[in-house]
Write a structure and sequence with these properties.
This protein has about 210 residues and is α+β, with helices and mostly antiparallel strands. It contains 5 helices and 5 strands; from the N terminus they run ααβαββββαα. The structure holds zinc ion.
Length: about 210
């Protein structure tokens, strides 16, 4: 399904990443850990990622963009920046319930439902979660949302991936229908302002004085 060009782009993207991507070192975003370990260490993760690192969000965006012709797909959609700040701690004073607070924001490419043109949307999510491992105690605190983990350990990246998917709008569309449509439409509405100097010149030239 992917064209050769797409593969080449991906290859160079990953080459570019190498100097900055410390895969050999422990990466708190991708390492598995017990929520209680993360809470006890007060782990803070502050990082900038790319859409390509979040497999489920990437699949969703790819499926969305597949609805437009290949020429219209923004070439760098996989590089969409993801800003992440996560802070692990405890939800309760007795230090029994691991909590995760943070902020995630991203600007990703989506397809407008009205005009089927790609455009950028912002995703923003505020996290205030109680992490409950399977079989964990479900004492709820009002200010926290319960986040049930599938396993005893968590990968912070998986949580970010899921939070971003939940932050995706059910249907994306330009804020204003006036912004919809191809670029040509936009140029047309700008045209009168641009031609006015010539119109003025013309009327001056017709004026015998
Ligand atoms: Zn639109």
């Amino acid at each position: 399904m992917l064209s050769n060009q797409t593969s080449v782009t991906t290859f160079f993207d990953s080459m570019e990443n190498c100097p900055y991507d410390a895969r050999a070192m422990a990466n708190p975003l991708t390492d598995r850990a017990l929520p209680a370990q993360l809470a006890a260490s007060g782990q803070v993760i502050e990082t900038k990622g790319k859409l390509s690192e979040f497999p489920r969000l990437r699949m969703l965006v790819e499926a969305d963009l597949a609805r437009v012709t290949r020429a219209k797909i923004p070439q760098k959609w996989r590089d969409a920046p993801i800003d992440i700040r996560l802070a692990f701690g405890w939800a309760d004073v007795r230090r029994q319930i691991p909590a995760l607070e943070g902020q995630i924001s991203a600007r990703i490419d989506a397809v407008c439902q009205r005009c089927l043109e790609p455009f950028e949307i912002s995703l923003n999510a505020q996290l205030k979660l109680m992490l409950l491992i399977p079989g964990g105690d479900a004492t709820a605190f009002e200010e926290y949302e319960i986040w049930e983990t599938a396993e005893d350990t968590v990968r912070p990246l998986d949580i970010v991936d899921e939070v971003l998917i939940m932050a995706m709008p059910l249907s994306a569309a330009h804020d204003d229908s006036a912004m919809c449509g191809p670029l040509a439409k936009k140029l047309l509405t700008e045209e009168p302002g641009k031609v006015r100097p010539f119109a003025d010149l013309k009327s001056q030239m017709r004026d015998p004085n």
